[in-house]
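Teaching assistant here, posting this on the class forum so everyone can see the example we discussed in section. The complex has two components, and the goal was to see what a joint structure prediction looks like when all of them are supplied at once.
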Amino acid sequence: MTIESGRGSTMGTEKPVIAVLGIGQMGLVSAAILAAGDRAGQGASQSRPGTARPSVVLWAHNEEEAGELSQTRQSARLPGFVLPDEVRVEVANNAMLAEATLIVSAVPVQYTRSVWQRLRKHIRADAGVISVAKGIENETLLRPTQLIADVLKDDPDRAPRRMGVLSGPTIAAELARCLPATMIAASDDPGFAETIQRIFSTSWLRIYTNQDMLGVELAGATKNVIGIAAGVLDGLQAGYNAKSALLARGLAEIARLGASMGAAPETFFGIAGVGDLATTCFSPEGRNRSCGEALGRGEKLEAFLARTPSVVEGVATTRSVMDLAQRYKVDMPITAAVHAVLFNGLDPLEGIGRLMARELKGERVG
Amino acid sequence: MTIESGRGSTMGTEKPVIAVLGIGQMGLVSAAILAAGDRAGQGASQSRPGTARPSVVLWAHNEEEAGELSQTRQSARLPGFVLPDEVRVEVANNAMLAEATLIVSAVPVQYTRSVWQRLRKHIRADAGVISVAKGIENETLLRPTQLIADVLKDDPDRAPRRMGVLSGPTIAAELARCLPATMIAASDDPGFAETIQRIFSTSWLRIYTNQDMLGVELAGATKNVIGIAAGVLDGLQAGYNAKSALLARGLAEIARLGASMGAAPETFFGIAGVGDLATTCFSPEGRNRSCGEALGRGEKLEAFLARTPSVVEGVATTRSVMDLAQRYKVDMPITAAVHAVLFNGLDPLEGIGRLMARELKGERVG
């Protein structure tokens, strides 16, 4: 609990330690924001009243990549980004996790289980967990915080571990340049949501709290599926009208799924929902949109993935979301079309045609 | 009622007549869609079962512009557009309105009253009205259908006139190319909403019905204010994260206003709400976004309006929405910032700064 003002046992001379797992784009920018804090003009003491600046450790397991990051403070994964000197890069040093009272999980969802299984025995029982990953694990259909809890198997007789998520429209290259952005800090524990809000807030990054962790994680995962569909429209040069219709109808179907699973519909109409969806559908930088665009132009999925160095979360997520739609009996025509294009060889143009040719009807949202 | 299959008194040899008022972008594309119908491959009989193809008249009052449109079938207002031969262009011929059983009002909102006042005495008592304009009249704070009703002053002892709106994400240049799009046909009279749906539907234009005419008109008007703010961000090169946050927070505040006025929140989260908002914020073609972009780059409002041939609806609408926010006591910080930038000389960068620096809090949507 050392990150909270005035309450931690190590307050004073010792600094709280935050470990960031993963050196993908979100790992890099998360570490930079936490360590260097507000580099946009205002002092950290102003934007984070009462909070001691934490010590930030970036954990990596790829020795080659992490070694280069440690030496050059740069990464081919995020051109133009410079890792602040304050961030310590640890290569495959799992023992260092014993110091961390907060752990930010920035590992692609389909690798999260194996990473946490490897680290599990080093993780403190009182360490809070913040997930910034966006996806649903295949087969288990668990959200990131659920699958981390599944791995940790905490003692049910202890106080529950603080778990939260940080999500929103965050093109990493823009965060790296300190361009204005917003995110949602969500936790079933309101106090922990406020902790996340406080440690990540800067003058250029505005963070709102939300208690609907389920909705925020679902929105972050499902928007990548719609983002692939948006890319398909781009590949077909379908235009803004079509893409905006897709955004609205896609939002309706992911909000329907969320409601069926017990999430708050408002979450989907907020920053972590429609906000993140808008960036995913319209920013040319998004990997999911780019993947869809390649498919829309006629490229094969395997060919696109082979030439893309980063994980395209939406591809695996599409399988999981289709499974959830079936389990909760929710009609998700756009997700079904993306699934058919990705895995069953449906021609993208025919997929669009099917969506447009459905029976004329009244609008139903959520 | 001659537009409805098998029910009109003039069915048979005579065709129903639809008059489209206005030769701006939406007037042009509305007339083309109604007259030529489905030019995307499928026959009209297939996409509009049982509906007689109507006779479409395009009403204009600017003799010079209408004369050129009539002769060349083209317009400087919509490069690349060709008006189908079936559409008759009538220049200042108000008497022809006596034939029309449906009237599409495609006049900028701040001119709608004067146009309808001039035409009032020619309009049939049984003519249905479809508004495609997006705005709120200054001073009266009336929506387009309200202000048309205010001008018509129909006999309260007769059956109420059929009134509806057609709205959605519709960049006119894309409609002119028959690119896929969706719209909402809204009317308090569900049968009339279905009539609008039927006469405008084609294989590339998918129309949903909605009974929340208030919400659809409010969403169409207010999104232009947020579109100006999106342009300001573009002018400041703030990035996609910022613009998507604006979209989400803007959506929240216009949905709040709508709910306070009695509209259905879902309307704002659908095609006529967030769909239209997305196109307005992200398409480079939008006039409201372009206006904001000019302001963000430092241009004065007067200079931008002087060099822009078309009406920028959002400028006048911002005044009306601010008045509505005060009347209904709704907090609309983005609208207030746009109002201050447009009319009170607030520096755009300072406006953004104020929005970002508001007290950290929980997310509240709708």
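For the discussion questions: Chain A touches chain B through 61 residues (CB under 8 Å). Chain A has a mean pLDDT of 90. Think about how each of these relates to the inputs above.
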